[in-house]
Amino acid sequence: MQIYWTKINKIIEETPEVKTYLLDCPEGFTWEEGSHTHFALEGFNVGDKPNRNLIRHMSISTVPQEKSIGITTRIKEQCSEFKATLSNLAVGEKVAIFKTHSNIPLKRQNKNVYLLSSGVGLATFRPLVLAYLANAQYVTQLHSLNIDSSQNYLFLDLFMTNKEKKFTVQFVDQRQTYYEEVSKLAADTQGHFYIVGSDDFLKQTIEVLRTLGISPQQIMIDKHEQSRDILLPTTPTT
Q1: Structural domain 111-231, CATH architecture
Q2: Taxonomically, which superkingdom (predicted)?
Q3: What separation in angstroms does the CA of 68 have from each of 5, 6, 24?
Q4: Regions in the chain scoring below 50 on pLDDT
Q5: Which of 69, 90, 143, 195 lies 20 to 30 A from 125 at CA?
């Protein structure tokens, strides 16, 4: 396993609780849209065993063309040791990234693509939107639906409806409204549905889609195969 040590080159305050940490790209480090990585703080690998309190599984919110690795995360006043330590880091300090992989690259199969997210989960979809806007080939249209009860919606400079590019955007702040909109989108029985959020959010959204006839093969979640099989079994469970 290769560990890439790099430096924070910029910290962006997206909202009062959400920050994006932009990291220098280490030589030889590559990724694609929809990628996640293990993001670790100094001291995580001191001793016989890794300190898992200093490691988090994070989505990369940038594309390689931006020449920085973006990590976007919510940091509340009451937070974990990891986020408390992260919040005190400054530009120029070191962090580590390793085990980078994409479970949800943008599918280009001449279908409509729907991005369903909760809160800061929108950061996972930012690279997919950028990839689509740069090259819409074999994607019929793209639609984003995000729910955030704080109403501090992220990336409003990017997540705005662009009819010319066939990219539409919805933000809602209530669960009932969100599920009503998901049900409407599920009328497209051939579409691809990407979901990012908490496990409860995934389970509930999957249940709505499956009830309305969307197959597991049409649903993409940012999980390894074993976790995916639990949340999204291809055969009915008894």
Answers
A1: 3-Layer(aba) Sandwich (3.40)
A2: Bacteria
A3: 14, 11, 5
A4: 236-238
A5: 90
